[in-house]
């Protein structure tokens, strides 16, 4: 009888232990599942927030491009026509004038109008979204630097190393806007006289460096500037890496690294 009671107690203990072990394992399993689901939730939340941020930025860029396009048409259709008409009127005055000195002044004015018309045409092209998309990045950069050189305030060098590869139109447009914004910052803030753009192609990526001999600046104090924020946001849109190096008195170097498009046949 005593032996039977001992067996029952042992079985009860073993059964209880088995139940506790099962409950413990079940609890651990539930905790693991909970943490995994929690992590999946946080990851999904981050993905949704990132997608929302990109979609919002994309909408902002599209609105900006629409504004650029409208401005481009306005410059070409209205202001360009006014300057052309002014040039035509100067030609009529030149034909009807017998005063040599006046004719010389009219001729100089016509030359100035020619310069203004050509500059306006170039600016209109750089603002025209569809026009920029049709051109390769080299041609677009050449046009920007040509406009800067014509001011006679800047000299500029542009070098390309390696074999250029295809970049989709949308990425090419945003990359061009990054370079355009960088050059605009140099003109407005750097106090520079010389600009160097170096493009280096490898099999899978494009490295661009834009360097000026300007005043430089403290990056920590200027990190939240609108120009730099625009460049940073656009870089994120095309999955490129963006870095800037500068110190007061040493000029500035902006670096962009763009990975090659996976589908090289898509336009």
From TrEMBL:
Q: Which residues cross the membrane?
A: 12-34
Q: Which reaction(s) does the protein catalyse, per the Swiss-Prot or TrEMBL entry?
A: ATP + protein L-histidine = ADP + protein N-phospho-L-histidine
Concerning Gene3D superfamilies, the annotation shows: 1.20.5.1930, Histidine kinase-like ATPase, C-terminal domain
Q: Which InterPro entries does its entry note?
A: HATPase_C_sf (IPR036890), HATPase_dom (IPR003594), His_kinase_dom (IPR005467), Sensor_HK_TwoCompSys (IPR050482), Sig_transdc_His_kin_sub3_dim/P (IPR011712)
Molecular function GO labels: ATP binding; phosphorelay sensor kinase activity; protein dimerization activity
- Does Flavoprotein show up as a keyword for this record? no
Q: So what EC number does this one have?
A: 2.7.13.3
Which PROSITE patterns does the entry mention? HIS_KIN
| Alphabetical list of Pfam families matching this protein | HATPase_c (PF02518), HisKA_3 (PF07730)
Which Gene Ontology cellular-component terms appear in the entry?
A: membrane
UniProt keyword terms in alphabetical order? ATP-binding, Kinase, Membrane, Nucleotide-binding, Phosphoprotein, Transferase, Transmembrane, Transmembrane helix, Two-component regulatory system
What residues does the Histidine kinase domain cover? 70-262
Q: What is this protein called?
A: histidine kinase
> Upper lineage ranks?
Bacteria, Pseudomonadati, Bacteroidota, Chitinophagia, Chitinophagales
């Amino acid at each position: 009888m005593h032996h039977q009671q001992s067996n029952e107690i042992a079985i009860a203990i073993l059964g209880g232990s088995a139940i506790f072990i099962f409950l413990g394992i079940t609890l651990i399993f539930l905790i693991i599942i909970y943490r995994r689901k929690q992590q999946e939730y946080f990851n999904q939340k981050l993905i949704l927030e990132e997608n929302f941020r990109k979609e919002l930025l994309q909408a902002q860029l599209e609105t900006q491009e629409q504004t650029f396009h409208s401005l481009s048409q306005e410059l070409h259709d209205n202001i360009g026509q006014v300057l052309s008409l002014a040039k035509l009127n100067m030609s009529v005055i030149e034909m009807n004038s017998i005063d040599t000195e006046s004719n010389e002044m009219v001729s100089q004015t016509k030359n100035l109008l020619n310069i203004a018309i050509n500059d306006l045409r170039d600016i209109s092209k750089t603002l025209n979204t569809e026009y920029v998309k049709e051109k390769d990045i080299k041609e677009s950069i050449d046009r920007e630097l040509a406009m800067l050189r014509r001011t006679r305030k800047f000299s500029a060098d542009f070098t390309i190393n390696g074999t250029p590869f295809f970049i989709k139109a949308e990425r090419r447009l945003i990359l061009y806007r990054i370079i355009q914004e960088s050059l605009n910052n140099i003109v407005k803030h750097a106090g520079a006289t010389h600009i160097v753009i170096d493009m280096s192609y490898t099999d899978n990526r494009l490295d661009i460096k834009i360097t000026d001999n300007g005043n430089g600046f403290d990056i920590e104090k200027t990190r939240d500037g609108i120009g730099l924020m625009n460049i940073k946001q656009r870089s994120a849109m095309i999955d490129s890496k963006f870095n800037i190096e500068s110190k007061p008195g040493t000029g500035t170097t902006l670096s962009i690294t763009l990975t090659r498009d996976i589908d090289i046949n898509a336009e």
